Prior knowledge:
Two copies of one chain form a homodimer. Chain A contains 14 helices and 18 strands. By secondary structure, chain A is of the alpha+beta class. In chain A, strands 1, 2, 3, 6, 7, 8, 15, 16 and 17 form a nine-stranded mixed β-sheet that branches. In chain A, strands 11-13-9-14 form a four-stranded antiparallel β-sheet, covered by helices on one side. In chain A, helix 1 packs across helix 4, helix 1 packs antiparallel against helix 14 and helix 4 packs across helix 14. Chain A is globular and about 85 Å long. Chains A and B meet through strand 9, strand 10, helix 6, helix 7 and helix 10 of A and strand 9, strand 10, helix 6, helix 7 and helix 10 of B. Strand 11 of chain A pairs antiparallel with strand 11 of chain B.
Amino acid sequence: MPNINEYLDQNKGRFEEEFFDLLRIASISADPTYHDDVARAARWVAGQFERLGFPAEIIPTGGHPLVYAESPRVPGAPTALVYGHYDVQPVVPLELWTTPPFEPAVRDGNVFARGASDDKGQMLTHVKSAEAWLAVEGQLPINLKYLIEGEEECGGQGVADFVEKHRDRLACDCVVVSDSSQFGPDRPAITCGLRGIVYAELLLTGPNRDLHSGSFGGAVANPANALARMLAALIDDRGRVQVPGFYDDVVALTDKQREQFASLPFDEAAYLAGIGASALVGEEGFTTLERLWARPTYDVCGMWSGYQGEGAKTVLPSAAGAKLSFRLVPNQDPAKIIEGLRCKLAEVCPPGIRMDLTVHHGGRGVLVSEDSPYTQAAARAVEQAFGAPPVYTREGGSIPVVVLFSELLGVDVLLLGWGQSDDNAHSPNEKFSLADFHRGIKASAQLWEELASCPTKGS
Amino acid sequence: MPNINEYLDQNKGRFEEEFFDLLRIASISADPTYHDDVARAARWVAGQFERLGFPAEIIPTGGHPLVYAESPRVPGAPTALVYGHYDVQPVVPLELWTTPPFEPAVRDGNVFARGASDDKGQMLTHVKSAEAWLAVEGQLPINLKYLIEGEEECGGQGVADFVEKHRDRLACDCVVVSDSSQFGPDRPAITCGLRGIVYAELLLTGPNRDLHSGSFGGAVANPANALARMLAALIDDRGRVQVPGFYDDVVALTDKQREQFASLPFDEAAYLAGIGASALVGEEGFTTLERLWARPTYDVCGMWSGYQGEGAKTVLPSAAGAKLSFRLVPNQDPAKIIEGLRCKLAEVCPPGIRMDLTVHHGGRGVLVSEDSPYTQAAARAVEQAFGAPPVYTREGGSIPVVVLFSELLGVDVLLLGWGQSDDNAHSPNEKFSLADFHRGIKASAQLWEELASCPTKGS
């Protein structure tokens, strides 16, 4: 695509100017003070599509609006749905920013501003790539649908409701999301797996009030002791979760995947230093990356009981509670895990203690095959733009919208992160490499070409 | 002692008036607002001794003063040290009091006021009994020393410092304390055992900040998980504490003691209903009273980690902590238990977790032989005054000052509670039965007579 790449090179300066324009809009979705700025960012994004000649809609939700656009129909060609978000994280603590968060400043080849990497810059790459195709070729090689939301950083339900209601309208052959990171500098990545989650809260109740630990201790069931016992019973010495059936449906890593994980330059010492821990631990028989990306977990996220103040209070607490997170991997079923958890906890709950288990949420993990034609198309595009083949990584966290696309649209979700893990996405001095911005646009333009030869369900 | 009992009967009304005068003084030691009232109560108590012709001192401490007095020397007779306190608990929540806490009101034979049972009424019985002896016989049959403090309810160090410094001055053959309860109505008790305590705080640290449980979960040691595991490891399924050497020095109950405990009318259903629990639990092989009075315990008094708010936060906490109470029985040594605890925790502390153990306090248990001549003297006195022999009970809690007397003065401490367990000692509507007040005075007067024939170390 020499002509397209030429166009991209010629327009670098203007692309950056437009990118910076968007960065100047303080579209903090979590803070009502910025309501008008969020709306302005939505209009700015819609304006980009209109300039391309794509009919764009600003779709109201219960919160901030969605921007939806479609490229002109290319009959018979595959369809990709691009997802991104135009809203940004809050900027506190403001005093830690070197330059103001909404005045983009370039230093050492990076642009510093809130939203630079997450997700304005990354999202924009897929708009500018379309512009290049239209300018040079007069048309796109595939069909593009864009769904750009404004509530990603504030947990809004708008996009979920929309996807659920408009599955037909959003029908596509794959989804493209650039809202994550490369594995490292000059080491682009395709994220092929996300973990799912079961998040539950356990509440134990013993006596009807806090009792004196001297007068009652030894004869009355203590919910704090019971909590320790029950939480400890959920995992064994080898780091294996003791929920019945927990591992039944886990998709095991193939030898090839384990080799590939092992070949990644993972610096354990740097990782340890970064979190200030003295040792890495976890399920026996697995490496750190395997534990993080491909194995399910059990973490206590919070716990409380009795007296937490200074000094000593001799109390036998009336209640104790804990928040539990189980990270799931494909194909674990959250409902089945919750049922097993309930059984196990009931089994180990001691006499004299009442147990209540509340499930806050559950979601499946997502796995995209490295061998899928869409993944392979993305790999070729990334390699051409970045000069290196992407590594196939996974992510230990969950991204609800990706699960949504995967489950409701039934297609592969291509997670093509152009950012870096030190972009300070939710911290002061967020940045995005301008080189990565431009390589992202090139990769995106190339991706449309590569996807054109992929199979399509038609529509 | 017909004449003395006659005197007591004749003076009932005046004794009550004087008792109520003391109750009208709002001697709340924990609240600086009441500083002058506390001082006034000390002067009131000192005034009582002066009227008996006992030289009385008001002894300043770092906090509220001690009142100290001695009866005129009776050569060759044994010496009893009476301990009590003139300060009272706070009165919040005031709106739950039927009548104001410092306006004594008599209802159904009880006087309602803060401090009625704890400890003004009980303490005063040992003053009025001396008055009767002096009025009727012109002298006491034994030597009495009185140490009445004003910081019992606020944890002041004054009395401990004084006892430590003035062991010679306080030298005696036994200590008499009335600051507890009968086993039930018309069922007087002598408390022959108190448990000791080790109270410690465990702090676990993992990563240097709270981490995302998705991005890091499975590979990083979680201090909340570790806390559950470590706390659970301190006790087994049969309720046996797993600290090395924990039971080595425990004085086992004799068959006679177990029979005697078993013969007490302990209503398990009522006990359960009172605390709203569904079952009583504890160390295998022991009854509830044995567990409460004669067996050591392990209770988690508080615990905390990570997110404790509403809903879900997917955090892998940086730290977790717990407060631990071990109730000890004679002859367990707190220092040895702390050492064993430290060893055990270090043994079960998982890799990647730093552990800090702080000991807040430790104290030995106290055991007074039922067969000691002083206990037997008290039993005879109680039976004569109450018309029923006392039962020998123990108390699961610790009373630091009793441990102090036991250890520093090396004598038996007679815990003769005239109160009832429903006297609301630290709650609104505190009360004391006037019948018990007068029976307490009679028992005290009889006690001086009975102690006169006990062995004495001389002085």
